[in-house]
Amino acid sequence: MEGFIYPNEGVVEWDLLITIYPFITGLVAGAFVVSSLYHVFGMKSLKPVARFSLITALAFLLVTPLPLIVHLGHQERGLEMFLTPNFTSAMSAFGYIWLMYLLLVLGEVWLIFRPDIVRYALSSQGIKKTIYSVLALGVYDVSEEALSIDRKLIKALAAIGVPAAFLLHGYVGFIFGAVKANPWWSTSLMPVIFLMSAVVSGIALLIGMYIVVAKIRRMPLDHGCLRSMTLWLWGFLSLDLVLEGLEVFTMLYESEESWGIVHQLITEKIAVSYLGIQFVLGSVLPLLIIGFIELSGLKENIKTPFRFVSAFLVVAGVFAMRWNVVIGGQLLSKSLRGFISYTPPLLGLDGILVAAAIMTLPFIAFFILSHLLPPWPEETRVGERKTLSFQQW
Amino acid sequence: MGNKISRRQLIKDGGKTLLGGIFILSVPSLLRSFTRTEEPPNPAAAAQLDQRDWETRYWGFICDTEKCIGCGRCVVACKLENKVPWEPEYNRTWVERYIFTMDGEVFVDSPNAGRDGFTAEPMNLKYQNLDVSKSFFVPKLCNQCDNPPCVTVCPVNATYRTEDGVVLIDQEHCIGCRYCIQACPYGARYVLPEASSTHFGQVRVVDKCTWCYHRISKGLLPACVEICPVGARVFGDLRDPDSPVRKMLSEKRVYVLKPTLGTEPKVYYVGFEKGVQ
């Protein structure tokens, strides 16, 4: 604590859990956008990761409500958000938007993986047969006629999914941006900034996971696809950086009453995570690295580690951005005269361990989902068929 | 396609699923209504309350910073009356001290939220070599805004504005998301700790000043107003031309906290100074 804070302000009420919540939803939105770039906008170069990105989006989406529920003072009353919603509250929409989006992603996953599900259901035995038969939902028609209907539905769902993903995440930005009491949050740019950083983090995550998974599965990397993803990352990151810069520059230029404390916040209190990680390491540096290697004539497999490092930096930078918004905004006293200090505890529901455990859940979900519905392209599927069935189909 | 589902079948199955979903979702509220043990209200009091016309009253509050002596009795009275945890991090009301120096600097503090007064930390000992131009105390409490941002953001309608203009919290309904704490520009709200013994036996929910709603509804004054030895806190019905609040508002020039935010506070300050937030 430093300077004067209102006596009730000593606690950072929205802690680490609320920091990872927008981080996770951002990854969902970003991963979904990549899959839609292929399914809706026909970006052929992204085909190798189209299914992979969808499974990734689903894995993260399943975990999204968890940090919110754990954070509640009364978890057992969580359902009240559905039962007695206050429609003027930005937060009450979360459950509905999340549910709608979950159904949409589930529908799309099912349609895209239906031919596989049917094949596994017909070719496997025992418990596996049961699982895949259930997943098939009784529809075994994989004729060209049926699949062409599927493709139309997939395209339609993916097309609805893009604005839905934007809604899911833009709305998270609105939760913060519409708090007029907080000068560091209250800006109409907030939803757009959240959206851009969401897309950025999702693409970067996919680049990282694609490289790691390819390494583990010993499958050849599709460099064209990696290059395409990296360039998309570069584009969205530029936009994101401009918006984030614009937000602070406007505050500086207008120099309202609150600028003094906001200036002190970003140059002293969160200088490392804001200027250091979010701005320099997480935005400027990856922009330079990507710009350099994509323009250079380096060999593709030499570019891979650079792309991986850039992706990692970007994900770390976006996490820092979530921290700087959620925690940073609560460090400044609404009296505009002082700061609250915050170090997340290691143990307890609001601690680092719980947050880390929640952050690993999407990867576990991804592991399970990708075993159930292998998203890898046909030609690189190594030995998958054998483990799934005793007889060749 | 194989296994075609007829439209009739789809509607039937869909209807069943919908009904099932509604049933499952209603379990929490059903359980709640079964477990609730309501005591029959005192018939006389109930009759008296029934006769009250809630819509005729509209409460208002004045803090006179020219009168406040920073004794902190209001903070203590409030904590006792409303079972607010004794620790200084939990307050329905508190007192701030403002010190202005000749060269334009402002110092603000509120040791123990003003609960123990300010005599333990006198200005000349705490801030040495200050060329003080003026100093005064500012009592703070919930502003019971006419346009309350906390009510707007509550996701479950647990906090609401009454007809007589007071913002209350249904602590049996509050889910503890703390969005309202973020939305309040005045720091009026806090979370009840695990070991609190409030009137409603609730913990881990949000609490704040109610202008002693349980008292004012019976024609009594809020505890802090009643205890104030110098009359720095004035309370009454804004619609009653004879109420002390109405009279004072027509005599004095007053100001509210952070008026630019459009929250329309109903705590008015006499003797306001630029720099008081």
Q: What would you say this structure looks like, in words?
A:
The complex is a heterodimer of chains A (393) and B (277). With 393 residues, chain A is an all-alpha fold. Chain A has one domain (2-376): Formate dehydrogenase/DMSO reductase domain (Formate dehydrogenase/DMSO reductase fold, Up-down Bundle). Helix content of chain A is 72%, strand content 1%. Chain A has 14 helices and two strands. Chain A has helices at 16-39, 47-63, 65-71, 80-83, 93-123, 126-136, 144-177, 190-217, 223-254, 259-269, 271-295, 300-331, 352-372, 384-388; strands spanning 2-3, 338-339. A two-stranded antiparallel ribbon of chain A has the order 1-2. By secondary structure, chain B is an alpha+beta fold. Chain B has a domain at 54-142 and 210-270: Alpha-Beta Plaits (2-Layer Sandwich). In chain B, 29% of the residues lie in helices and 18% in strands. Chain B contains nine helices and eleven strands. Chain B has helices at 7-35, 43-51, 73-82, 123-126, 149-153, 179-183, 213-216, 223-227, 244-251; strands spanning 59-64, 93-101, 106-109, 132-141, 159-161, 167-169, 190-191, 206-207, 233-237, 254-255, 267-270. In chain B, the strands form four sheets. A four-stranded mixed β-sheet of chain B has the order 9-1-11-10. Chain B has a three-stranded antiparallel β-sheet with strand order 3-2-4, covered by helices on one side. In chain B, β2 (93-101) and β3 (106-109) form a beta hairpin. Chain B is elongated, with a radius of gyration of 24 Å. Chain B starts with 6 loop residues before the first helix and ends in a 7-residue tail after the last strand. The model of chain B has no long low-confidence stretch (mean pLDDT 88). The chains are: A mainly alpha (393), B alpha+beta (277).
For the record, the CATH architecture of chain A stands as Up-down Bundle
Q: Find the biggest chain interface.
A: A-B, 49 and 53 residues
State the low-pLDDT regions of chain A, or none.
379-393
Number of strands of chain A: 2
Q: Which class of the domain at 54-142 and 210-270 in chain B in CATH terms? A: Alpha Beta
